Amino acid sequence: MHSLEKPPFTKPTFLGNKKFHVSPILFSVLVALSEIANAQIEERPVAGKIYNEFLYWDNQGSKDFSIEQSSGNHIFTFNEGAYLDASNGGNTSVFHPFFNYIVNTTINVGKDKTLTILSDAHGVIHLSNSDDSENDIYPKNYQIIGGNLLFYSGDRSDQLDNGDSTLHVEDKSKLYINSNNLQIVHNDSIGQNYIGALSVTGTASTLDIELSDQFRAEGVLFGLAIQELEGATTKGYIHSDNGIFIKASNNNAAAHGYYGAGLYALGRYNEESLVDIDLSTDDGDIRIETQGYGIYSFGQVDIDLISNTGNIYVLADEKQAIYSSRDETLELSNDILLQTEANINLQSIRSYAVRTTYDSMVTLKGKEISLLSGDNSVIRTEGNSTFKATGNKISVTSLANDDAAKTALYAVGNSSQWLKASDIVIDSYYGIHIWDQAQVNVDATNELFLNADREVDGLTVLANGNAAVNINKNVDKPSRVLMHGELRSINDGEINVQFGKHSSFTGFTSSEAYSDNTAGTINLNFDNKSTWTLIESSTLTSLEMDDSLLDFSSWQGNQDVISTRAERSYHSLTTQNFSGNDNNFLMHIDLANESETNVLTDQFIITGSATGTNTATIAFDGSDVVNKTHSTNWLISQGAGSNMTVTAPDGGNQYAPNGGISWWALKFVPESQNAGDLTSDEWNALNNKGEGAGKWYLVQTDEPSQGGNTGHAPLPPEAEQIQNLGSSVAQAVGWLSEKNDLRRRLGEVRYGSQAGAWAKAFTRQDRAEGFRYNGFKQESTGIHIGYDTFASQNEHTAWLVGATFRYAHSKQEGIETTYGGDGKLNEYSGKVYATWMHESGSYMDILAQVGYYDQEINGLNNVGNGSFDADYHNWGYGASVEVGHMFTVSNGSDDRPWYNHWFIEPQLELSYFYVKGEDFKTSTGLKVEQGDADFLTGRAGLVVGKKVNYGTLNDLDKRWYQIGVIGGVTHEFLGDQTITFTGTEGKSAEVKGHGLGGTSFYYGMTADWQVSDNVRLYGEVSREEGEHYTKDYGVNVGFKYSF
Asked: Residues 743, 943: contact at Cβ < 8 Å?
């Protein structure tokens, strides 16, 4: 993923908000209990009296009282706070203004003090008229100023209405609160049947809450329920500096829409009716957790949830997180806005995250927006309604399984959905399904992830009945798109997708009419480096691609390696128009078994115009012998007005089956010609440029066209790479790298040599172009370990005999002009040698070797869409004779021979190496038979050097050092080898090469240092340059210990 993170597929859980975990309620309760313990006044609150001490009242333990107010102004002042327990108060609220009076009441609470009120089922404050006052309105105006408010709601088990709440306002009344905190919780000590937290009903009523800290309502039947019953505006405002938290549960046997709702709004009386709800916070989160609806909005409603820096959560269980609708018979507007600089999270466990109907609109504006449904569609819009979401990242996830009615985005009935963000993730079993003139627009500027890790055959996008899905249509620079599944457009539906750079679509398209459905429109556009992998045959209207891959057949589902044609599905892609350049069509064909009735090939069908210059990579399936000169079926067809050129991957027009050795070309047959009637000359006259209507066929050719490997590749890539690395040249290079073997192996063997053990390490880089025009570069490292002793020794001559084991490892790269390839060669060899030395300075060195060679080869397959490999091992046998003589030029003042002198040493060497050929087969089925190879190499060399002894004329010090310059010429007399290739199509080819032929020149430096009587170090640095062989560098370092 990715790199984007993919959403986890686990059962959703409500997200936590650490800010709410430390509850201010507990703090307020503790403060209130402390104040109760120190209370100095215990009486029924009296209006007009100022309480400068903490007040406690529970009506002498009965908890049954009501503070009633008639007309006029009433002021209650609790400077030190109060605790009022009316939890057994009967059928009236705690503060109870008389119905048929206009009442104005103010409750003042001291700074940082707490007003705690325990109420019954009718709540703390209930501002309303009596049942018989329908024609007379007596508005009430209440305000609570200062302090912390802790209200315990009562318990009611009979039928509830939306006026049964802790704070209730109706009939042009107004409740204004300006405090630090407002906490509304259920009093669990008197029962478990919840009532609501806040309710506003009637007409033209207002609830206005301003808090410097937090609002919390939990253990309530609903958070805020508002209904406008006439043609006016009813308002509900809550503003807090540090967050709003509502947790609503329905534990009542009855069920109404507002039961268990967070926000519930009805404004449907007439066109003038309006419910206006604003929830806002500066620094905290807005969090609504519900068992029922998170937000329920019906009729003419305007709801805004705004947090400046905090997150917004609407988390529902049984119902929708947001539901927005209206009466279809009235022309009403219904708008819901959630806006924050932080994140928005909407979840519904068992229903939609968002559902809109009938001209309603839901708008989300945030940084990261997450919408999730556990068992339904995530967003559903109907009947001219609209959903909009904009942010940096939007995630839409449905955890519902295989159910076509449960999609990520569902739109019907002329509704619309708009998602715009930098990154968008849409993840569900079914992605976007729309009907009946609906429209969905998804625009991402960085990356869009659409069902990219789901089953690839799911119905990801469906546009039915004049509906339109537009993906990245409304952005200047389309995002990268990762998409799986089917795109289906029927009954005049339309799907438009802009795939930005590096996009990937694994799936198929369908725009055809079928059954009772008419055709639709699908337009796809792929930008640079994108890939469309077909998993089924597809139809669409228009396809535009630029420098992208159209992969017909590489996807194989959950199958393992495809080895037989019965297991391969061939696909067709049909489009009315195609345009683009530098694209690659990856197609398969079973040439041996395809026929008129058995179309075993992928087909690209362009019914209208096809334009551009593109590449086709064609994989030949099967291993049966091909007995035809051209394919029976065409691979590409194009309509009138076309002008398209199709080349092979190397830029020419040559194709070969994997494991094969025959060449084929993709040629265009105009509509005016019948492929079945063409003669051989007419086939040869065709080319790979298609103008007008016609079809493209594979045609066998004798030689390749002039492509990327101009004139130097008569055989397909696999055979060429085998010639690079699979001849015996690499083994011969290992043998011949020991030319001038004596000094390289043992250093200086004169000057009082003794029996002993020795070791030598080496590294070198060689380049060989010896087998025809093929060859390689290799880097080798290795080690020798040996032992030698004197077989005979006298005053004039000595024979030194010994044996050594050699290991070498080489990394190889084939010549790029012949398709490259790479390999590894491990050599294990043993040598025996005998060296004769004479006091005059002459020497002769005789050597014999047996070597075991383990060769691995990896390279590009013939099709060009994958690799092949091969490995084999063989044996090599070698022998050499080297002679030379050291001439002393000058001894200086020292007349002792070979002590301090300049010398010249001419050398001659003749070596023979025989490599036993091996038969092997590549992983693609190409059979390779190596002939045996012989190498006869002559060398003439010269060493010019200076030896210096440490001691003087009278010393017996045996230490010395010697430095010399080396140079010479080498000539290869033999080196011929034959390699026979047999391809999977049954054809054979024999090639002959002359390995390492010609003359080369070498030069370098050599050095020896007798460190002590028993220890000698030696080394050499050299280069060699020739017609077919170059040693870029060679370094040898040796050590000998004499006994």
From this structure: yes
Nearest to 738 by CA among 816, 829, 835: 829
Amino acid 859 reads G
Furthest C-alpha separation in the chain:
145
**960-972 vs 976-982, strand pairing mode:** unpaired
Helix (H), strand (E), coil (C) string for 346-362: EEECCCCCEEECCCEEE
DSSP string spanning 455-504? -TTSEEEEEESS-EEEESTT-SSPPEEEEEEEEEEETT-EEEEEE-TT-E
| Cβ within 8 Å of residue 106, ≥6 positions away | 73, 74, 75, 76, 142, 143, 144, 145
Helix and strand tally (H, E) in the chain? 5, 74
Residues 20, 15: Cα–Cα separation, whole Å:
12
Q: What is the pLDDT of residues 512-551, one digit of tens each?
A: 888 888 899 999 999 999 999 999 999 999 999 999 999 9
How far, in Å, CA of 600 to CA of 594, rounded?
Answer: 5
Closest of 861, 905, 909 to residue 881, by C-alpha? 909
**Distance between CA atoms of 139 and 118, rounded to whole angstroms?**
25
Count other Cβ atoms within 10 Å, centred on residue 660: 29
Closest to 740 in 3D by CA, of 382, 390, 1006: 1006
Tens digits of residue pLDDT in 38-63: 557 999 999 999 999 999 999 988 89
Residue 1024 and residue 459: Cα distance in Å, rounded?
A: 66
- Shortest CA distance to 691 belongs to which of 573, 604, 611? 611
Which residues make Cβ contacts (< 8 Å) with residue 161, sequence separation at least 6? none
pLDDT digits (tens, 9 = 90+) for 894-950: 666 667 889 999 999 999 999 999 999 999 999 999 999 999 999 999 999 998 888
Q: CA nearest 962: which of 1004, 1002, 1010, 1003?
A: 1010
Residues 6+ apart with CB under 8 A from 61: none
Q: How far apart are the first and last CA of the chain?
A: 65
How far apart are the C-alpha atoms of 321 and 347, rounded to whole Å?
6
Q: Which residues does 811 contact at the CB level (< 8 Å), separation at least 6? A: 778, 779, 780, 822, 823, 824
For residue 53, give the nearest of 35, 28, 27 by alpha carbon.
Answer: 35
346: Cβ contacts below 8 Å, ≥ 6 apart: 294, 313, 314, 315, 321, 322, 353, 354, 364, 370, 371, 372
Beta pairing partners, 859 = 868
Confidence (pLDDT) at 561 = 32
> What tokens were used for 132?
């018989």
Provide the pLDDT for residue 957: 72
| Residues 724/726/727/728 CA torsion (nearest 10 deg) | 120
CB 103 within 8 A of CB 76: no
Residue 977 and residue 989 in contact, taking contact as beta carbons nearer than 8 Å: no
Nearest to 987 by CA among 895, 925, 912, 901: 925
pLDDT digits (tens, 9 = 90+) for 352-378: 999 999 889 999 999 999 999 988 899
Given a contact cutoff of 8 angstroms between Cβ atoms, the answer to whether 107 and 145 are in contact is yes
Nearest to 100 by CA among 133, 73, 127, 58: 133
Which tens digit of pLDDT belongs to each residue from 180-231? 999 999 887 776 778 899 999 988 999 999 999 999 999 898 999 999 988 8
Name the more confident of 87 and 388: 388
- In the predicted model, what is the mean pLDDT of residues 419-431? 93
The closest of 207, 239, 225 to 307, measured between CA atoms, is 239
C-alpha span between 716 and 646 (Å, rounded): 19
Q: CA-to-CA distance for 254 and 589, rounded, in angstroms?
A: 67
CA angle 271, 277, 278 (to 5 degrees): 140
The amino acid that residue 405 corresponds to is A
Tokens of 569: 């599905």
Alpha-carbon span 356 to 360, nearest angstrom: 6
842-867: pLDDT as tens digits:
999 999 999 999 999 999 888 877 89
Length of the chain equals 1043
